[in-house]
Write a structure and sequence with these properties.
The structure holds two protein chains of two kinds. Chain A is mostly helical. Chain A has one domain. Chain A has two helices and two strands; from the N terminus they run ββαα. By secondary structure, chain B is mostly helical. The chains are: A mainly alpha, B mainly alpha.
Chain lengths: 71, 722
């Protein structure tokens, strides 16, 4: 499978690095996931949620960066 | 046109900011925004408040200057030693900041030391100039704002102070009347709770305004010693009233009129004294002086009571006698303050507490968190290249981090909106407006307009953090200087710095403990009961053995824990969210807090009574019975330390009542056998006070268990994402 070629994002002439954009989306996705896990009381199954949050941010950032944005 | 106070205050700050910038630029000083920052933070609603804060800022800056120059001089070439000593000093300031009346002094001392160290540390040749420049600019900002505050629409806090003083006296008088109603069986517990909260609010306002009025009112300054004495007496009076109130539950069932025949006269005299104090504080001469009073028992009626009932009555009476002494002293102090008496009020002998260093675990936790914040930023700065903001990130982490670390109840997310809005606002001014300006006239008008707008829109006291963030980010991002240049990177780097800071604050939020309010609540409750358990285990009557220094230190530490933890818990309670309150209501949590406070007072009382000399005969006879009771209570504390609902109310009541009944029977036996020579009247009264203290603690524990059982701790303990 071909992954997207890394490229910068230009907003009004300001160039944003792809990793920054991936990290922003990764953070949002992780926040949404943790909210949903809280909402359905699934969070109680985790031993230490703060580490899970951090892991989710990293996983989403890497996944979005690799497969969607190209970072 | 009549300007509102809000408008006048905004004009004063805006004018001071513009003049401070004007002077700094005309003197060709580097970084004039430091003067602007000083104006931004010291602008408060009265001269006294502003001068108070300005003095803390100036002295904090001077101390930080010395400390940072010493650190730079000693460790300029040793990176890790430099970081270690700077962080250690910042940690020390963090510890000193919480719980101190000079919190702002320590805060400024911390972040200014960091700023000078990172500026001077990277350029040691100019370190001295940087430190002096910072002190100069701060002094300039403070001087300009102070002069404007004094000459332009000066607002003294004297009227506010007088109003706050009268308000406090009236609230206390109402509280006393409500408690008296309770003693007569007519009181409303909810109304008393409301009045108690009202007194606390009135006293907080009085304390704040006294600090300020001492500075901006010469009358208050001249009488500052009697005012401080009144403040101490007032605090003691409220504590005595609280203790009397919580002792009433056990005497309400008794026929007080028969047992204390002069109770009506006594209560009316106390009421009259409080009314006269409020009258004098309002500026009117007193209508009468305090009358001498006593509150004797009816010995015949007393004989019909059980030992525990006698004990409860003795305790309640001793609280009323204490109220009599306090109101008399307060009357004298207020007479002197208001010039109705030429005689100096007798000052109560100040008891110097034993000088022992007792670390506060919560303050130490703040230090650990702050060091973690600084550590992460230091490491990021060293090992990550081209970090947005560079060393500026460290300065922001230090100045915001010390506040975050000292207010663990405050979620980091509350800073997100003010910071984002301020960055956007400052960016618009910097990118679109500032490049169009070509002279100080235009720049001055811009500084005035922006400062006025921020101060006017964020004028309410609760909006003060928003105002400080807005003004600070405006002056930082605008980076006004004589050789003004514009660089988009300043905006981009400042904007990028904040997500990084929030990330660091978020990552360190769990150091050393979880920031979730319900977890903090359970943790503090556990600490309260573990401390109480230790105090019970350390309670001995063996007067022949002198406790070691270590034992005294431990006892003092746990006593302080028991006395302060209810107030700490009260700061966490409002933060409990819907998740934990899904099965428990806020009223139930508040009821738990009240029972805990009562438990704390009663522990304190018991410890006090245990320290007083007792009749040797009674001690010897009842030693084993009291020991059994103490071990029972100790076991209850041990169980309650695991969670609020660890003991069923009825089981607890049954267990404690059994012990108390046994004790009462033994008491009867021992007292009947005791002849007059073995136990004097005074010793008997002292022993009854001790017995009353034991009984009161048992009762408080039962009430606590009753309130605690209503708390459903299952969702509190469940793991979830913050």
């Amino acid at each position: 499978m071909l992954t997207p070629i890394p490229h910068e994002f230009a907003i009004g002439g300001v160039y944003l690095p792809p990793m920054l954009v991936a990290a922003a989306f990764g953070l949002l996705a992780a926040l949404m996931t943790t909210r949903l896990l809280n909402r359905y009381r699934l969070s109680k199954h985790f031993f230490y949620p703060p580490l899970v949050s951090l892991a989710l941010i990293i996983i989403y950032t890497v996944a979005i960066g690799t497969f969607m944005i190209g970072a | 046109m009549i300007l509102t106070t809000r408008c006048k205050e905004a004009i004063k700050t805006a004018l001071a900011m513009t003049i401070a910038y004007g002077i700094a630029l005309s003197m060709a000083w580097d970084r004039p925004y430091w003067a602007g920052l000083a104006v931004a933070v010291v602008s408060l609603s009265s001269i006294g408040q502003s001068v108070n804060k300005a003095a803390f800022r100036m002295f904090g800056t001077l101390v930080a200057m010395v400390v940072s120059l010493v650190i730079i001089a000693l460790f300029a070439q040793q990176r890790w030693a430099f970081i270690l000593f700077l962080t250690a000093y910042a940690g020390f300031c963090t510890y000193m900041m919480s719980g101190s009346k000079r919190a702002y002094f320590w805060q400024v001392s911390c972040f200014v030391a960091i700023i000078i160290c990172i500026d001077g540390g990277t350029d040691p040749v100019n370190a001295f100039d940087t430190a002096i420049l910072r002190a100069e600019q701060t002094g300039l900002g403070i001087l300009v704002y102070s002069l404007i505050a004094i000459f332009l629409w000066p607002s003294s806090s004297r009227d506010l102070f007088n109003a706050a003083t009268t308000d406090l006296a009236c609230s206390q008088s109402q509280f006393y009347q409500a408690c008296l109603g309770l003693a007569k069986g007519q009181g409303d517990e909810q109304e008393i709770q409301r009045l108690a909260a009202q007194v606390v609010q009135a006293r907080t306002r009085f304390d704040q305004l006294l600090d300020v009025a001492e500075i901006d009112s010469s009358e208050v300054w001249e009488l500052r010693r009697p005012w401080r004495q009144y403040q101490r007496q007032d605090k003691e009076l409220m504590q005595a009233l609280e203790r009397w109130r919580e002792s009433l539950a056990e005497v309400q069932v008794l026929d007080l009129q028969r047992l204390l025949p002069k109770l009506e006269t006594f209560a009316a005299e106390l009421d009259g004294r409080l009314a006269q104090i409020a009258r004098m504080l309002g500026g009117d001469a007193p209508e009468r002086a305090p009358q001498g009073m006593d509150l004797p028992f009816d010995r015949d009626a007393l004989g019909s009571l059980s030992h525990f009932q006698t004990a409860a009555l003795v305790v309640s009476r001793s609280h009323m006698l204490q109220l009599e002494q306090l109101t008399r002293s307060m009357f004298e102090t207020v007479s002197e303050l208001k010039g109705f008496s030429t005689a100096r009020a007798s000052s109560s002998p100040s008891i110097r507490p034993t000088v022992l260093f007792l670390p506060d675990l919560d303050r130490l936790a703040s230090v650990v968190r702050f060091i973690a914040i600084m550590g992460v930023v230091w490491l990021a700065l060293i090992y990550v290249t081209a970090l947005p903001g560079g060393v500026g990130l460290l300065a922001f982490a230090g100045s915001v981090g010390i506040i975050i670390a000292n207010t663990p109840q405050l979620p980091v997310s509350v800073l997100f909106m003010p910071c984002t809005t301020s960055v956007l606002f400052a960016a618009i001014i910097y990118i679109f407006v500032m490049p169009k300006l070509s002279s100080f006239l235009g720049l001055g008008l811009l500084i005035f307009a922006v400062t006025f707008a921020i101060c006017y829109l964020f004028a309410a006291p609760r909006q003060a953090p928003g105002k400080a963030v807005g003004l600070s980010l405006f002056v930082t991002m605008a980076s006004i200087s004589n050789e003004q240049s514009y660089n988009f990177l300043i905006v981009a780097n400042t904007a990028m710095m904040f997500p990084l800071l929030f990330l660091v604050f978020g990552l360190t939020a769990y150091i050393p403990w979880s920031p979730r309010p319900e977890r903090a609540f359970l943790r503090l409750l556990g600490r309260f009961f573990r401390s109480s358990e230790y105090l019970m285990s350390a309670m001995r009557w063996d007067t022949r053995r002198t406790p070691t220094r270590w034992e005294r230190w431990k006892k003092a530490f746990y006593e302080r824990e028991v006395a302060t933890l209810p107030a700490k818990l009260a700061t966490w309670a409002p933060q409990l969210d819907d998740w934990v309150l899904s099965t428990t209501s806020m009223e139930q949590v508040k009821a738990l807090m009240t029972s805990l406070q009562v438990l704390s007072y009663r522990m304190e009382r018991l410890l006090g009574e245990c320290g007083s000399p007792q009749a040797q005969y009674l001690v010897e006879q009842l030693l084993e019975d009291f020991r059994a009771w103490r071990i029972g209570i100790q076991a209850c504390f041990q169980q309650l330390a695991t969670g609020p609902a660890a003991r069923e109310r009825e089981t607890l009541r049954k267990g404690l009542n059994e012990k108390l009944e046994l004790l009462e029977a033994r008491m009867q036996d021992v007292v009947d056998k005791a002849c007059g020579e073995q136990v004097s009247n005074h010793e008997a009264e002292s022993f009854y006070r001790l017995l009353g203290a034991y009984r009161a603690l048992s009762e408080a524990l039962v009430y606590y268990a009753g309130d605690a059982v209503a708390i459903d701790c299952v969702p509190w303990r469940e793991e979830r994402f913050a």
